[in-house]
Amino acid sequence: MTIPNIQMYSDRLHAAKSLGQRRERTIDGRDLWGDCKTPLVTIVTVAFNSAPTIDRTISSVISQTYRQIEYVVIDGGSTDGTVDIIREWSDRISYWHSAKDFGISDAFNLGIAAAHGEYVGFVNSDDWMSADQIKLLIAQLQHTGAAFAFGRLAHHASDGSLLYHMDGVSDYARDIYWRMPHINHPTVIYRRTAIETVGLFNPRRLVAMDYDWHLRAELRGLRGTYVPSAIGHMTEGGVSQAGWKQGLREVRDIAVQHTNSKFMPNLSYRLRLLRGIVRLAVSRLAPIWLVNVIHRAVNPRYSPVQSKPNDIH
Q1: Contact, 186 vs 234, CB < 8 A?
Q2: How many domains does the chain have?
Q3: Is 198 a member of any domain?
């Protein structure tokens, strides 16, 4: 499948009969290009029926210590009051749009088409950012010239309580050709030129669209940089977790498609599927301390909350 380009999505935005607003202003109400010394960063939030959580998401973006931010919200036609909450924040949002879309990848691409920033990042409507997250990632991008930067991810229960942390991996290229490494997508900031080079997210991918993009980037020689001090926050139970089996299948299919190799992608798929099934069974039967010990032994990048009690703000 040929992935639609940015112009096609821009045309869709202009032609759409949707609720929305465009204001050429940052989160502080300044002209988008008024501060030429500081790069403009576009943060995109995609939402659908997210009334219980989107207020927290928006608040975390407008509270960033990095201030040169264009904030774009792409809503998929919510009917639960989400749009009313977006309207309440409209004086801090640069662009918002509410209309039916074709899934998360499609919404990401609409957000990119609406973006003007030199850098683009995503925070979904049930996730949120630490106060210094953008500042730390942009500093690393400017220092290294990398195509994208990513950080650690704190996983929370639906009530907001911290469950565990998942570290990223700086040497992700070692096994990206057959499985999705720990490039924590809710923490990634992309250089816009990298998106233009690699292309948009594949709208046919419903769960592993980030793996598809990062593998394409790797094949083009574009690399990312890991910033462990930049911490994002994700609520357990989102699309990627609820559909974890589908995600594993997509990762396998993406690896086969782009590398023309079947053995390692299929082996990785079977091993990860088995590990996931065992983990779910153990979590239902064993005490939490034992679950944490086993999970840590299998995945050393997993840190239960007890091991890092003061890391998350």
Answers
A1: yes
A2: 1
A3: yes
